[in-house]
């Protein structure tokens, strides 16, 4: 068996265990907003491939680094003195924890992952220089990870990396600096980290690490593939869905049809989210909201007639659609915390719901279905949902809400725009083909996959190779 070992260290209460939970995709250790929560070093398997293992050690936080290093400077053999020194676990926790972390690095680590708070200036965080001096004495290669970067896609990441790169110039022990927020990292950033680990390992370990990185990539791309296939099937089903109208359909019948169509999409959205969460090793639910019903006086405007095959319902059914919009806004339908309300109202606004439905008129009985405009917006919102899950760090606990992801909207819209014609063609195919429509779903998934690859490659240019079908 061949192991590559990473020691995850930081100053106390910077977020080591939170990041460890995100990387391992399981709850390990204890996360509290206080110093020295982790008391002993614990090893966890991060990746396995045959007889090869990548181990991640979660270590106690470095404590009073300044006092410790100042003592070590006076010793002829600083590390030897430190490792043989005896500190009381309860009365001098900062030095005890530091000793435990150093012991783990010296005895077990191939590479040190040094987690720092990116919100702090390295010059202002006085402990950083002392801890880098301590790591230099140990002599293992160090990769600095920038935590607490804020919401993904926001500005400032490049400036933070440049600031830390400038600061560590005097510390040759630091080989790379990478953003890797414990709360909002994306899985592709983990792949970049593994590539950098391979770069700094001694030659005899690089081949093992390459196999492990390849195993991680295959596993992650399989999840990506399954997610896009699931999204493709969801969008295809929404495009094909329709609700027939009875004879001489009045306001109540039309509203019933819209409600039935909306309820089905709501249920499908919830099922999609459950599947995506499970694929990414997350637990969570949409919080249930109190449901109320709003009684409205529905005034039906004059219904316009169309000679074509379909018409928007905004004018034809303003009263019924308006009432349905009121239901959505007040929780009258089964939306929970907005699984579908975000798709309908988030992209198009409350008035957009009036344009979301289409009256299909043809040789068969008339029916209500989703309009192409709405389906395009639903596609964009679904891609944003995927990105929210792909960036959800497990250290935040259960997945309970999606967040706005506003900084990603323009990027997703831009990448989707060049494929609007292809998406429109898939919608037409979905409506023409009989179930199960597997071919249409697969072709829709290809559009989803290409858009997400472009989005992630643009946001994380260092991860282009990881997302490429061909890899080194």
Question: Could you outline the blueprint of secondary structure elements for this entry?
Answer:
Blueprint: E1 2-10, H1 16-24, E2 42-49, E3 52-58, H2 65-72, H3 78-84, H4 93-108, E4 111-117, H5 127-138, E5 142-147, H6 157-167, E6 174-179, H7 187-200, H8 203-240, E7 242-244, H9 251-279, E8 310-312, H10 313-316, H11 318-329, H12 341-348, E9 357-360, E10 367-370, H13 372-390, H14 406-417, H15 420-432, H16 438-459, H17 464-467
Parallel strand pairs: 1-3, 1-4, 4-5, 5-6
Antiparallel strand pairs: 2-3, 7-10, 8-9, 9-10
Helix pairs in contact: 7-8, 8-9, 8-13, 8-15, 8-16, 9-11, 12-13, 13-14, 14-16, 15-16
Describe it:
By secondary structure, the protein is α/β, with parallel strands linked by helices. 50% of the residues lie in helices and 12% in strands. The protein is built from 17 helices and 10 strands. It has a 6-stranded mixed β-sheet, with helices on both faces. Helix 5 (127-138) links the parallel strand 4 (111-117) and strand 5 (142-147). Helix 8 runs antiparallel to helix 9 (251-279) and helix 13 (372-390) packs across helix 14 (406-417).
Compose a concise summary of this entry:
The chain is of the alpha/beta class and about 475 residues long. Helices cover about 50% and strands about 10% of the residues.
Rg, rounded, reads 27 Å
The N- and C-terminal alpha carbons lie at a distance of 24 Å
Mean pLDDT: 78
Tell me the number of helical segments per DSSP (H or I, 4 or more residues long): 17
User: Helical amount among residues, as a percent range?
Assistant: 40-55%
Please describe the biggest sheet, giving its number of strands, its sense, and whether it closes into a barrel.
Answer: 6 strands, mixed
How do the helices and strands follow one another from N- to C-terminus? EHEEHHHEHEHEHHEHEHHHEEHHHHH
**Low-confidence runs:** 31-38, 286-352
Beta-strand percent range: 5-15%
Name the structural class.
Answer: alpha/beta
**Quick one: overall form?**
elongated
Strand order of the largest sheet: 2-3-1-4-5-6
The number of distinct β-strands equals 10
């Amino acid at each position: 068996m061949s192991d590559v070992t990473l020691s995850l260290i930081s100053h106390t209460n910077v977020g080591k265990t939170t990041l460890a939970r995100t990387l391992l995709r399981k709850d390990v250790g204890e996360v509290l907003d206080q110093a020295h929560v982790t008391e002993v070093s614990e090893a966890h398997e991060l990746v396995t491939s045959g007889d090869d293992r990548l181990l991640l050690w979660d270590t106690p936080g470095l404590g009073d680094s300044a006092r410790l290093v100042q003592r070590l400077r006076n010793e002829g053999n600083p590390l030897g003195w430190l490792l043989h020194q005896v500190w009381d676990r309860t009365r001098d926790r900062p030095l005890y924890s530091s000793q435990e972390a150093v012991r783990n690095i010296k005895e077990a680590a191939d590479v040190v992952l040094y987690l720092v708070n990116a919100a702090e200036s390295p010059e202002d965080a006085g402990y950083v220089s002392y801890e880098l001096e301590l790591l230099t004495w140990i002599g293992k290669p160090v990769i600095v990870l920038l935590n607490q970067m804020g919401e993904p896609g926001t500005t400032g990441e490049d400036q933070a990396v440049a600031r830390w790169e400038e600061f560590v110039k005097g510390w040759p022990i630091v080989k790379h600096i990478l953003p890797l927020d414990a709360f909002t990292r994306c899985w592709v950033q983990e792949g970049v980290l593994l590539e950098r680990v391979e770069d700094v390992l001694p030659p005899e370990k690089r081949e093992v690490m390459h196999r492990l990185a390849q195993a991680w990539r295959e596993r992650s791309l399989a999840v990506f593939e399954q997610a896009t296939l699931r999204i493709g099937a969801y969008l295809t089903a929404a495009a094909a869905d329709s609700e027939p109208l009875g004879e001489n359909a009045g306001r109540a019948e039309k509203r019933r049809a819209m409600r039935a169509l909306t309820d089905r999409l709501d249920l499908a959205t919830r099922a999609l989210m459950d599947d995506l969460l499970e694929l990414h090793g997350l637990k969570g639910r949409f919080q249930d909201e109190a449901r109320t019903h709003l009684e409205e006086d529905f005034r039906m405007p004059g219904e316009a007639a169309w000679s074509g095959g379909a018409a928007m319902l905004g004018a034809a059914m303003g009263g019924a659609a308006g009432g349905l919009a009121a239901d959505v806004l007040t929780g009258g339908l089964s939306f929970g915390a907005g699984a579908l309300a975000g798709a309908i109202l988030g992209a198009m606004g409350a008035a957009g719901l009036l344009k979301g439905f289409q009256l299909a008129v043809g040789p068969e009985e008339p029916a209500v279905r989703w309009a192409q405009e709405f389906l395009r917006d639903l596609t964009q919102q679904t891609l944003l949902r995927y990105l929210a899950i792909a960036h959800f760090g497990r250290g935040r606990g259960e997945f309970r809400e999606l967040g706005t992801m506003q900084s990603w909207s323009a990027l997703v819209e831009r990448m989707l725009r060049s494929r609007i014609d292809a998406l429109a063609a898939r919608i037409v195919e979905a409506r023409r083909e009989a179930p199960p429509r597997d071919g249409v779903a697969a072709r829709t998934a290809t559009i989803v996959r290409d858009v997400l690859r472009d989005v992630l490659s643009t946001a994380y240019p260092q991860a282009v190779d990881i997302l490429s079908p061909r890899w080194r």
